[in-house]
Amino acid sequence: MKRITLLWCGLIAFFSAESQSRLSYKQVEILWDTWGVPHIYAKNDESLFYAYGWAQTRNHGDLLLHLYGQARGKGAEYWGEKYAEADRWVITNGVYERAEGWLKAQKPAFRTKLEAFAKGVNDYCAQHPDQIDPAAKAALPITAVDLLAHMQRITHFVFVAPLSRLNAALSPKGADNGSNAWAVAPQKSASGNTLLLTNPHLPWADYYLYFEAQLVSPNINAYGIARMGFPILTMAFNENAGYAQTVNTHDGQDFYELKPVDGGYAFDGRVKRFTSREHTLKIRQTDGSLKEEKMVIRHSVHGPVVSDKGGKTIAMRVVGLDQPAMFEQYWDMARAKNVTEFQAAVSRLQLPMYTLMFADNAGNIFNLFNGQVPVRSQGDWNYWSGLVRGDTSATLWTQTHPYKDLPKVLNPPTGWLQNTNEPPWTTTWPMVNKAADFPPYMAPVPNMSMRTQRSIKMLMEDDKISLDEFITYKLSTRMELADRIVDDLLVAAKKEGSPEAKEAAEVLAAWDHNTDTDSKGAFLFDRFVRLWAPGLTGLGTASSRFAKPWDYNDPVNTPSGLADPQAAVKALLTATKEVKQKYGRLDVPWGEVLRFRIGKVDLPGNGGPGPMGVFRTMTLGTPGADGTFTPAHGDTYVAAIEFSKPLKAMVLTSYGNASQPGSKHRTDQLPLLSQKKMRPVWFQRAEAEKNLQEKTVFK
């Protein structure tokens, strides 16, 4: 049987390679602009996908091959021990085997597109072997299965069901990463044109990176970004419409605690047997040899057993594993010319999560709390965020909610929509969707973080927003939390009366509450907040640290004040001592401690922590030996779009559009980021040709 299976796999690989070799790519060219962005013009879709795979590999080849290798569960086999834990997660969840099935489920025309992209990756590596790290070539050749496995690994087992949640002792569900998105209708726009903001902020490395491109064929003309290694755009706009996505408060992963009994587990009063499969994980050693590790993956009716430690046997269930058409849905979302076409695409629910924000030039704005949400018979959000009983079918969900059940807003009276990774209830204000009208497990109860309040306040306070104002608001570094508590803190510090408290109060009183490069006082306040609210966990709107709690009738100005001024001053004095000792002064400029640094480029930073209410989010990572910080994650890509005729758009990809060693496009956009500037989109071919760096023509 094993020999037959191996023969069958070999035949599949052979015919896949043969299919790729028969593909022909003609009349396609890439116009590389001066920022390293490819504008790909093709006579047919297959040629477009081929050139797109080729272009991604040129700019990110080493990273792409590493990601595809890891999606096979072979990172450790190719590159060593540090990939073993990630491989175990991929293998336990059957990622690659499922991707093989997903490829068979693709429509023939779209499968051809995926094969074309894979061939583009392979051909670039073959044509430019000196541009690819020899170690990375272990993953070659790439197939369409690798694309689907990579998509599944990143979407389902990094974002929906990350290993980190298990490693963090099954901590409550919540997004570690974030994004901002806005849509403004003509009634609120100064020009009468619809506006759209796309603004993910994720880590600046590895699979979190985005690739900026324009794709043009007879069936598409779209500009945007793709998650690294994806053969389609994942956030995009065309001349008529566009959309953004944000990480949403979505629960598509559940942990079930099983009761082991007689070699099986208890379920509905009976003993059920585990099904199991074996896998050999190979781990490359420093001497080049391979160590083999036998894995036995057990499955309950819930899913694979992902942990069997500390006396607890835990199985995991994940949504969307029977939805193989995510790439095709993204393709159609990017091509949608109006809200009707967009809704038709997203209603397929092939994306297992993400809030989607849409705008078109007909004046429509639309927000969807998108996701595969399990239909559950009991419990609220908090119940399903912990360990769930696995010994009863009463907790075993088997269906997900259809599109009609999901919270959504189309053209609200307010004229604006926003999302900052909050539950869907605050998409606009006053609320359109109310939690009481949906199942209690759909999303957390209404709340409004400081970043959400900053977002809503900027939109509410301007009756007519121009594109320039739209961009200015996006780049705002104001710290909303400071507006709420600094006055009380100053009073308490002066009352304490010590020289240290007086000096700290003077610095904070002179501070403008921004986190710009030259803002003095921002860093002292940041250090104080981390002591006052350790881990920034005490900054929720219901926090007891505030004198005045959040008020529904004053949603963007509460909570406020200090409930315990003495405790706050104690934290301030500790922060004062630490900052003085480490940096020599209290009024150290923010840009001296936050640095935008890639390779040898080292520039002053701006922006600040989202939990403190900074819309231009930059999360401070671990400080270096010199006491400076670089963003752990933060603004990665910004697109501000006005659906005028012709289209107007400004963008920035913070870390540049390439990661290959030696590329000037690894760092060329950092100066703009440091200066709080953006660059124009060259959407028309004539614009791309006017700003041409190089042309690649495939013959």
TrEMBL record:
Keywords: Calcium, Hydrolase, Metal-binding, Signal, Zymogen. Ca(2+) binds at D251, D254. Its cofactor is Ca(2+). It holds the Pfam family Penicil_amidase. The keyword NAD does not apply. The keyword Ion transport does not apply. Binds 1 Ca(2+) ion per dimer. One of its GO terms (biological process) is antibiotic biosynthetic process. This is Acylase. It comes from Larkinella punicea. PANTHER family: ACYL-HOMOSERINE LACTONE ACYLASE PVDQ, PEPTIDASE S45 PENICILLIN AMIDASE. One of its GO terms (molecular function) is metal ion binding. Transmembrane segments: none annotated. InterPro entries: Ntn_hydrolases_N (IPR029055), Pen/GL7ACA/AHL_acylase (IPR014395), Penicillin_amidase_A-knob (IPR043147), Penicillin_amidase_dom1 (IPR023343), Penicillin_amidase_N_B-knob (IPR043146), S45 (IPR002692). The active site is at S179 (nucleophile). It comes from the Bacteria. Belongs to the peptidase S45 family. The lineage of its organism: Bacteria, Pseudomonadati, Bacteroidota, Cytophagia, Cytophagales.
